[in-house]
Amino acid sequence: MTRATAVRAVLAVAVLLVSVFITLTMSPRLGLDLQGGTRIVLQARDTATVEADRETTDRTLEVLRQRIDSLGVSEPTLTRSGEDRIIVELPDVQDPRQAAEVIGRTAQLTFHAVEGEGTEQPEKKTPAPDTDPDRLTLPDEQGRLLALGEPRLSGAGVEDAKAAFDAQGGAGWTVSLEFRKGAGQDWKKLTGEAACHPAGDDRRRVAIVLDEKVISSPQVDPSVGCRAGLPSGATQITGSFSADEARDLALLIKGGALPVPVEIVEQRTVGPTLGAAAIDASAQAALIGAAATALFITVVYRLFGALAAVALGAYGVISYAALVALGVTLTLPGLAGFVLAIGMAVDANVLVFERAREECADRPKRSLRSALTTGFQKAWSAVADSNATTLIAAGLLFFLGSGPVKGFGVTLAIGVVASMFSALVIARALTEIAANSRFVGDYRGVNGIARPGAVRTWLVRKDPKLFRKSARWLVVSAALVAVAVAGIVVRGVDLGVEFTGGRLVEYSTSRPVDVETARDSIAAAGFGDAEVTTAGDGDLSVRTGKLDNDGEHALRAALAEEGGETTKVRDELIGPSLGDELRRNALIALGVAVAVQLAYLAVRFRWTFAVAAVVAMVHDVILVVGAFAWLGRPVDGIFLAALLTVIGYSVNDSVVVFDRVRELWGANRRTPLDTIARRAVLQTVPRTVNTGMGALFILVALAVLGGDSLADFALALLIGIVVGTWSSVFTAVPGALALERSAKAPPPPAPGKGKGTSRGKARATRRDPLDNGARV
């Protein structure tokens, strides 16, 4: 074993041990679409006096946090998105009506005199005639009940509230208050009345109440005289605050003074059974697909394929541990991305093994270890470029996607990095250790790379003249595009509610209800414009335009009359403004994807190759969209994630082909380019087929087992992989040949010439690791 192999083996073991420890000791963070709950996106709106910017949105968020805490929701999450949006996630909340009502209220901040210690009030259905509704009994910050007088001052009178550290007076962190002109006099009067009571008396306190919750009840300082009161600019609230507590209190007081109205632009509710079913289906698909992929590469590459399957299992552990350790929220598209990446993780191994097979075929007497090392060296360029294009697609998903689609981008990126590690470190260490074995080297049928594969042997024997008339392939591709465009024009694209706005609710009923009966019941309840379709195993999907939470409750009651107990499985509400924005962002994402991939390919390859690869990519996008139009399948955010993944896969395939064209053309500069292209395609077809099969196993399992939530995602990728494999050979290559006929650029330099010649010579003369140098 060489030193490099030993280092790789130690590194692989260390990373695996850490990954196993993380897997066994930490749990993943599940998104609401997997654990069940409600997600609400709020849009802050400007008022006549207040602009909805970052600062005012933060204040509104803190006020909303206090309100939602009062609902008793377990582990709610509130975050600001951009400048003026707030995302609220409420786990396990299936009826969002109360949450939406609480969120929609305007903040109510009031200041009260404390009349003494309060007593527990028995609940009464109707208030007593002599009860003043403005007088409250509320617990203070420590939980003691206080009897409060009527509101003396509202939050509208607060000019500003700031947290500051009083180092000079030794008071620590304090909150200073400033009031508007008229409110300042009311504050002075309120504190002056409280100062008439002795120090330590509850009546010397002033209660600051936000939405009927005491957020602060400070004592008036003993130095303040009776009826003198505190002037506006001299008011400070003290009391052993930490820096965060002081800032939060200042935000709450100031937020009550400057509430920003909010509008619900998106609301999604997922039942717990749907999330659990998605997790189970994805786990089954991952196991079945991974087992099929492992069996396939073992059959194709024998012992080395089995070792790659072991590395594939290690990849699954490492990528899962990375997701957990980084605290990535695992969403439904993200889970699908994790499963899909398992099938794509064999790509680098396949590239290396096919290169090693070529080396063994060209020089049959060279050692197995030497052929394998050369295979890793020659495959590196294609591995790096193909993974870079997939990382670009993942980055676009994260930065341009919305909601759960971002999670797909994160898991795809982590999967790419983990697959590189498993192929270039774990699989390489295992195969190099095996290659050092005399048994593996002597029995060439065992190792899997010492003999060419069946597909390559058949292609070499047939030697089809693929590009003698390359224009005919472009005609076929143009015809396919025309059929797809006809579907888009004739059938139209069924945009999901995410892009059009409206509401989509899926229900499960205890008794079977056919679509016509359900439609009649809903129409009788006043929802005549609702579209009713079947979904899943006998479920009903109802799509409407504008529908509030009360309307949804009435719609569910109408279905319950026919179907018995009716459970909401999924609920999506998208405001019209957000629908327009998401539709616009989807088009921008596709445009940016094309531009970025073109720029990367133009840097890494000739411009003719870059343009041809991008044309093939656009060809694939049109065919996938056209297929969904003909099939009548919905186009939504998850479809967009699949489409961007297809872009990365399409460019990935084209990169592998053009990388081989560049290499062969540089080494045979006088050979006609169409001959070079034919050889490159024939040499890379085994890689394309074997890699595609790994992804197809996973996607078929997802399509069959994933249910409605993942079936469309898997279908889009299945179509994309098939057309991407076609276009990388029969669209990209003929397109590059056509462009090269009009280009004047010389062929690429031969390998080992120009920059890096000395390194190339050194590498060429490097001795076989098993050669001791002895000669006879």
Mean pLDDT: 81
CATH architecture of the largest domain: Up-down Bundle
Q: Counting H and I runs of at least 4 residues, what is the number of helices? A: 25
The largest sheet, given as strand count, sense and whether it forms a barrel, is: 8 strands, antiparallel
State the end-to-end distance.
Answer: 26 Å
Function: Part of the Sec protein translocase complex. Interacts with the SecYEG preprotein conducting channel. SecDF uses the proton motive force (PMF) to complete protein translocation after the ATP-dependent function of SecA.
Membrane topology: Multi-pass membrane protein
Family: Belongs to the SecD/SecF family. SecF subfamily. Belongs to the SecD/SecF family. SecD subfamily.
Transmembrane segments: 334-353, 407-430, 471-490, 586-603, 610-631, 637-658, 688-707, 713-739
In short:
This protein is α+β, with helices and mostly antiparallel strands and 776 residues long. The chain contains 25 helices and 20 strands. It folds into five domains: 3-101, 2-Layer Sandwich (Alpha-Beta Plaits); 109-119 and 134-257, Gyrase A, domain 2 (2-Layer Sandwich); 272-452, Multidrug efflux transporter AcrB transmembrane fold, CATH 1.20.1640; 459-498 and 576-744, Multidrug efflux transporter AcrB transmembrane fold; 502-574, Alpha-Beta Plaits, CATH 3.30.70.
